[in-house]
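Batch job 17 of 40 flagged for manual review because the log was empty.
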Amino acid sequence: MSGGRGNERIFAVPRAYSMAARAWMERGLGLHGSAPRHGAATVFVRDGEHGVETLMLHRPGRQSMGTLSFPGGVCETSDDEPLDWHGPTPAQWAHKVLSEDIGRTRRSVVAAARKVFVETGILLAGTPGHGVAESVDGADWMTSRERLAAEEFSFADLLAKRSLTFHSECLRPLSHWITSDFIHQRVDLQFYSAAVPVGQRPVPLATQRGVAWLDWVDARALFEDPWSTPVPELFRRQSEEASLTDDPWHFDLNELTTPGVQCALEAVAHAGSAVAFLAARRDLRVKSPRLDLRDGEPVLVLDE
Protein backbone atom coordinates (compact mmCIF):
# COMPACT_ATOMS: atom_id res chain seq x y z
CA MET A 1 0.00 0.00 0.00
CA SER A 2 1.37 3.44 -0.87
CA GLY A 3 0.44 7.07 -0.96
CA GLY A 4 -1.62 8.75 -3.66
CA ARG A 5 -2.57 12.16 -4.94
CA GLY A 6 -4.26 14.36 -2.38
CA ASN A 7 -6.94 12.39 -0.54
CA GLU A 8 -6.18 9.10 -2.31
CA ARG A 9 -4.84 5.80 -1.11
CA ILE A 10 -3.20 3.48 -3.60
CA PHE A 11 -3.25 -0.31 -3.32
CA ALA A 12 -1.30 -2.66 -5.57
CA VAL A 13 -3.29 -5.14 -7.65
CA PRO A 14 -2.17 -8.70 -6.75
CA ARG A 15 -0.39 -10.49 -9.60
CA ALA A 16 -3.15 -13.12 -9.70
CA TYR A 17 -5.60 -10.41 -10.75
CA SER A 18 -3.31 -8.35 -12.98
CA MET A 19 -4.57 -9.79 -16.29
CA ALA A 20 -8.20 -9.31 -15.26
CA ALA A 21 -7.40 -5.73 -14.25
CA ARG A 22 -5.77 -4.95 -17.60
CA ALA A 23 -8.65 -6.53 -19.50
CA TRP A 24 -11.12 -4.40 -17.53
CA MET A 25 -9.09 -1.28 -18.24
CA GLU A 26 -9.32 -2.07 -21.96
CA ARG A 27 -12.95 -3.17 -22.21
CA GLY A 28 -14.82 -2.82 -18.95
CA LEU A 29 -14.46 0.72 -17.66
CA GLY A 30 -17.85 2.39 -17.36
CA LEU A 31 -19.64 -0.96 -17.03
CA HIS A 32 -21.05 -2.43 -13.85
CA GLY A 33 -19.26 -5.41 -12.38
CA SER A 34 -20.93 -8.58 -11.18
CA ALA A 35 -23.31 -8.25 -8.23
CA PRO A 36 -21.36 -8.72 -5.00
CA ARG A 37 -22.27 -11.36 -2.45
CA HIS A 38 -22.88 -9.98 1.03
CA GLY A 39 -20.67 -11.14 3.85
CA ALA A 40 -19.06 -10.34 7.17
CA ALA A 41 -15.64 -10.59 8.81
CA THR A 42 -14.59 -10.07 12.42
CA VAL A 43 -11.35 -8.52 13.67
CA PHE A 44 -10.53 -9.92 17.11
CA VAL A 45 -7.94 -8.05 19.16
CA ARG A 46 -5.99 -8.58 22.35
CA ASP A 47 -3.02 -6.90 24.06
CA GLY A 48 0.29 -8.62 23.29
CA GLU A 49 3.81 -8.21 24.64
CA HIS A 50 4.77 -5.61 22.04
CA GLY A 51 1.47 -4.21 20.81
CA VAL A 52 -2.07 -5.10 19.86
CA GLU A 53 -2.49 -8.52 18.29
CA THR A 54 -5.23 -9.70 15.96
CA LEU A 55 -6.52 -13.16 15.07
CA MET A 56 -5.78 -14.00 11.44
CA LEU A 57 -6.21 -17.03 9.23
CA HIS A 58 -4.88 -18.37 5.96
CA ARG A 59 -7.25 -19.66 3.30
CA PRO A 60 -5.33 -21.34 0.44
CA GLY A 61 -5.98 -20.43 -3.18
CA ARG A 62 -7.44 -17.29 -4.72
CA GLN A 63 -9.88 -15.86 -2.21
CA SER A 64 -12.15 -12.87 -2.70
CA MET A 65 -11.64 -12.02 0.99
CA GLY A 66 -7.86 -12.38 0.74
CA THR A 67 -5.57 -15.36 1.28
CA LEU A 68 -4.55 -13.84 4.61
CA SER A 69 -7.66 -12.54 6.29
CA PHE A 70 -9.93 -12.50 9.32
CA PRO A 71 -12.61 -15.01 10.31
CA GLY A 72 -15.62 -14.48 8.08
CA GLY A 73 -17.48 -15.39 4.94
CA VAL A 74 -20.59 -14.81 2.87
CA CYS A 75 -24.12 -14.65 4.23
CA GLU A 76 -26.43 -17.63 3.85
CA THR A 77 -30.22 -17.80 3.70
CA SER A 78 -30.16 -19.65 7.03
CA ASP A 79 -28.82 -16.47 8.67
CA ASP A 80 -32.36 -15.09 8.41
CA GLU A 81 -33.80 -17.76 10.71
CA PRO A 82 -35.21 -16.50 14.02
CA LEU A 83 -33.10 -16.94 17.15
CA ASP A 84 -32.98 -15.67 20.73
CA TRP A 85 -31.28 -12.28 20.60
CA HIS A 86 -29.60 -10.14 23.27
CA GLY A 87 -28.01 -6.75 22.69
CA PRO A 88 -28.57 -4.15 19.97
CA THR A 89 -31.53 -5.08 17.78
CA PRO A 90 -31.26 -5.48 14.00
CA ALA A 91 -32.80 -2.01 13.61
CA GLN A 92 -30.22 -0.55 15.99
CA TRP A 93 -27.47 -2.35 14.12
CA ALA A 94 -28.72 -0.93 10.82
CA HIS A 95 -28.44 2.53 12.33
CA LYS A 96 -24.93 1.78 13.58
CA VAL A 97 -23.67 0.70 10.15
CA LEU A 98 -25.51 3.43 8.21
CA SER A 99 -27.78 0.97 6.41
CA GLU A 100 -31.43 1.32 5.46
CA ASP A 101 -31.81 -2.44 4.99
CA ILE A 102 -32.54 -3.95 8.41
CA GLY A 103 -32.88 -7.49 7.07
CA ARG A 104 -29.53 -7.40 5.30
CA THR A 105 -27.88 -5.93 8.38
CA ARG A 106 -29.31 -8.64 10.62
CA ARG A 107 -28.10 -11.29 8.18
CA SER A 108 -24.61 -9.81 8.26
CA VAL A 109 -24.41 -9.74 12.06
CA VAL A 110 -25.57 -13.36 12.31
CA ALA A 111 -23.20 -14.42 9.52
CA ALA A 112 -20.31 -12.84 11.42
CA ALA A 113 -21.12 -14.86 14.53
CA ARG A 114 -21.70 -18.06 12.55
CA LYS A 115 -18.41 -17.89 10.66
CA VAL A 116 -16.48 -16.94 13.78
CA PHE A 117 -17.76 -20.06 15.54
CA VAL A 118 -17.05 -22.32 12.56
CA GLU A 119 -13.53 -21.04 11.84
CA THR A 120 -12.27 -20.26 15.36
CA GLY A 121 -14.59 -21.97 17.86
CA ILE A 122 -15.37 -18.62 19.52
CA LEU A 123 -19.07 -18.51 20.38
CA LEU A 124 -20.78 -15.14 20.85
CA ALA A 125 -23.71 -16.65 22.72
CA GLY A 126 -24.68 -17.80 26.19
CA THR A 127 -27.47 -18.89 28.47
CA PRO A 128 -30.11 -16.31 29.43
CA GLY A 129 -29.13 -14.34 32.52
CA HIS A 130 -25.57 -15.72 32.65
CA GLY A 131 -23.84 -13.82 29.88
CA VAL A 132 -21.63 -15.26 27.16
CA ALA A 133 -20.46 -18.86 27.53
CA GLU A 134 -17.01 -19.24 29.10
CA SER A 135 -16.10 -22.63 27.68
CA VAL A 136 -16.95 -24.19 24.34
CA ASP A 137 -14.12 -26.73 24.18
CA GLY A 138 -14.48 -30.46 23.66
CA ALA A 139 -15.34 -33.01 20.99
CA ASP A 140 -19.07 -32.28 21.10
CA TRP A 141 -18.55 -28.60 20.29
CA MET A 142 -16.08 -29.47 17.53
CA THR A 143 -18.67 -31.79 16.00
CA SER A 144 -21.19 -28.93 16.06
CA ARG A 145 -18.72 -26.70 14.24
CA GLU A 146 -18.13 -29.38 11.61
CA ARG A 147 -21.84 -29.88 11.05
CA LEU A 148 -22.44 -26.12 10.87
CA ALA A 149 -19.64 -25.79 8.32
CA ALA A 150 -21.24 -28.59 6.27
CA GLU A 151 -24.59 -26.76 6.46
CA GLU A 152 -26.24 -29.73 8.15
CA PHE A 153 -28.00 -27.24 10.41
CA SER A 154 -28.11 -23.48 10.89
CA PHE A 155 -26.63 -21.19 13.53
CA ALA A 156 -30.17 -20.69 14.83
CA ASP A 157 -30.58 -24.48 15.11
CA LEU A 158 -27.34 -24.74 17.08
CA LEU A 159 -28.40 -22.09 19.58
CA ALA A 160 -31.92 -23.50 19.97
CA LYS A 161 -30.63 -27.03 20.56
CA ARG A 162 -28.40 -25.80 23.38
CA SER A 163 -30.88 -23.20 24.72
CA LEU A 164 -28.44 -20.36 23.99
CA THR A 165 -28.99 -16.69 23.23
CA PHE A 166 -26.97 -14.76 20.64
CA HIS A 167 -25.19 -11.75 22.18
CA SER A 168 -24.94 -9.15 19.42
CA GLU A 169 -23.29 -6.67 21.80
CA CYS A 170 -20.08 -8.72 21.51
CA LEU A 171 -19.58 -7.17 18.06
CA ARG A 172 -18.74 -3.57 17.16
CA PRO A 173 -18.96 -2.03 13.68
CA LEU A 174 -15.56 -1.43 12.09
CA SER A 175 -15.79 -0.73 8.34
CA HIS A 176 -17.64 -1.57 5.13
CA TRP A 177 -15.89 -2.53 1.88
CA ILE A 178 -17.09 -3.60 -1.56
CA THR A 179 -14.73 -5.37 -3.95
CA SER A 180 -13.83 -3.40 -7.07
CA ASP A 181 -15.81 -4.00 -10.28
CA PHE A 182 -13.14 -5.91 -12.22
CA ILE A 183 -13.02 -8.83 -9.75
CA HIS A 184 -15.34 -11.66 -10.82
CA GLN A 185 -16.23 -12.88 -7.32
CA ARG A 186 -17.06 -9.60 -5.63
CA VAL A 187 -17.94 -9.29 -1.95
CA ASP A 188 -19.88 -6.61 -0.07
CA LEU A 189 -18.15 -7.11 3.25
CA GLN A 190 -19.11 -5.63 6.61
CA PHE A 191 -16.20 -5.71 9.06
CA TYR A 192 -16.80 -5.99 12.80
CA SER A 193 -14.41 -5.91 15.75
CA ALA A 194 -14.54 -7.91 18.97
CA ALA A 195 -12.65 -9.29 21.94
CA VAL A 196 -12.60 -13.01 22.67
CA PRO A 197 -15.09 -13.71 25.50
CA VAL A 198 -13.54 -14.48 28.89
CA GLY A 199 -12.74 -18.17 29.22
CA GLN A 200 -12.85 -18.92 25.49
CA ARG A 201 -9.91 -19.48 23.15
CA PRO A 202 -9.59 -19.81 19.37
CA VAL A 203 -9.13 -23.37 18.11
CA PRO A 204 -8.82 -24.33 14.41
CA LEU A 205 -11.50 -26.54 12.93
CA ALA A 206 -10.44 -30.20 13.23
CA THR A 207 -10.69 -30.92 9.50
CA GLN A 208 -9.21 -27.52 8.52
CA ARG A 209 -12.18 -27.04 6.21
CA GLY A 210 -10.99 -24.19 3.95
CA VAL A 211 -8.60 -22.82 6.60
CA ALA A 212 -4.95 -23.90 6.65
CA TRP A 213 -3.70 -21.77 9.57
CA LEU A 214 -5.13 -19.74 12.47
CA ASP A 215 -3.14 -17.70 14.98
CA TRP A 216 -2.62 -14.37 16.71
CA VAL A 217 -0.41 -11.85 14.89
CA ASP A 218 1.26 -8.69 16.15
CA ALA A 219 -0.26 -6.19 13.70
CA ARG A 220 2.50 -3.59 13.97
CA ALA A 221 5.22 -6.20 13.48
CA LEU A 222 3.45 -7.52 10.40
CA PHE A 223 3.99 -4.10 8.79
CA GLU A 224 7.38 -3.16 10.24
CA ASP A 225 9.18 -6.49 10.70
CA PRO A 226 7.04 -9.28 9.22
CA TRP A 227 9.72 -11.95 9.64
CA SER A 228 9.36 -11.60 13.41
CA THR A 229 5.86 -13.07 12.95
CA PRO A 230 4.95 -16.58 11.72
CA VAL A 231 3.14 -15.26 8.64
CA PRO A 232 5.99 -14.93 6.08
CA GLU A 233 7.41 -18.35 6.93
CA LEU A 234 3.97 -19.86 6.40
CA PHE A 235 3.73 -18.42 2.90
CA ARG A 236 7.39 -19.12 2.13
CA ARG A 237 6.77 -22.82 2.69
CA GLN A 238 3.64 -22.69 0.54
CA SER A 239 5.53 -20.94 -2.27
CA GLU A 240 8.38 -23.43 -2.18
CA GLU A 241 6.05 -26.42 -2.24
CA ALA A 242 4.03 -25.02 -5.13
CA SER A 243 7.02 -23.43 -6.93
CA LEU A 244 5.03 -20.20 -7.09
CA THR A 245 8.00 -17.83 -7.03
CA ASP A 246 11.71 -17.70 -7.79
CA ASP A 247 12.23 -15.84 -4.51
CA PRO A 248 10.48 -17.77 -1.74
CA TRP A 249 11.90 -15.38 0.86
CA HIS A 250 10.01 -12.46 -0.64
CA PHE A 251 6.98 -11.43 1.38
CA ASP A 252 4.42 -8.97 0.04
CA LEU A 253 1.34 -8.21 2.10
CA ASN A 254 -0.32 -6.70 -0.98
CA GLU A 255 -0.34 -10.12 -2.63
CA LEU A 256 -2.07 -11.80 0.30
CA THR A 257 -4.66 -9.33 1.51
CA THR A 258 -7.42 -7.05 0.27
CA PRO A 259 -7.51 -3.28 0.81
CA GLY A 260 -10.13 -3.77 3.52
CA VAL A 261 -7.95 -6.24 5.40
CA GLN A 262 -4.90 -3.99 5.03
CA CYS A 263 -6.74 -0.98 6.45
CA ALA A 264 -8.13 -3.03 9.35
CA LEU A 265 -4.63 -4.31 10.11
CA GLU A 266 -3.29 -0.77 9.97
CA ALA A 267 -5.94 0.39 12.46
CA VAL A 268 -4.96 -2.42 14.84
CA ALA A 269 -1.27 -1.59 14.44
CA HIS A 270 -1.86 2.07 15.32
CA ALA A 271 -4.01 1.32 18.39
CA GLY A 272 -2.48 1.88 21.79
CA SER A 273 -4.40 -1.01 23.32
CA ALA A 274 -7.12 -3.51 22.48
CA VAL A 275 -9.63 -1.48 24.48
CA ALA A 276 -8.68 1.69 22.60
CA PHE A 277 -9.14 -0.10 19.28
CA LEU A 278 -12.57 -1.41 20.24
CA ALA A 279 -13.71 1.97 21.59
CA ALA A 280 -12.57 4.13 18.67
CA ARG A 281 -15.14 5.85 16.47
CA ARG A 282 -15.05 4.58 12.88
CA ASP A 283 -15.83 5.88 9.41
CA LEU A 284 -18.57 3.47 8.36
CA ARG A 285 -19.19 4.85 4.89
CA VAL A 286 -18.91 2.27 2.13
CA LYS A 287 -15.44 2.02 0.59
CA SER A 288 -14.93 0.58 -2.88
CA PRO A 289 -11.52 1.14 -4.50
CA ARG A 290 -11.63 1.95 -8.21
CA LEU A 291 -9.27 0.61 -10.83
CA ASP A 292 -6.82 3.05 -12.40
CA LEU A 293 -3.54 3.02 -14.31
CA ARG A 294 -0.49 4.63 -12.69
CA ASP A 295 2.95 4.53 -14.30
CA GLY A 296 1.65 1.88 -16.70
CA GLU A 297 0.52 -0.45 -13.90
CA PRO A 298 -3.06 -1.18 -12.77
CA VAL A 299 -3.70 -0.06 -9.20
CA LEU A 300 -6.67 0.29 -6.88
CA VAL A 301 -7.46 3.84 -5.83
CA LEU A 302 -9.51 4.71 -2.76
CA ASP A 303 -10.86 8.25 -2.65
CA GLU A 304 -10.89 9.36 0.99
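Reviewer: the log was empty due to a logging misconfiguration, but the result itself is present. Residues 102-120 form the longest helix (19 residues). Unflagging and moving on to job 18.
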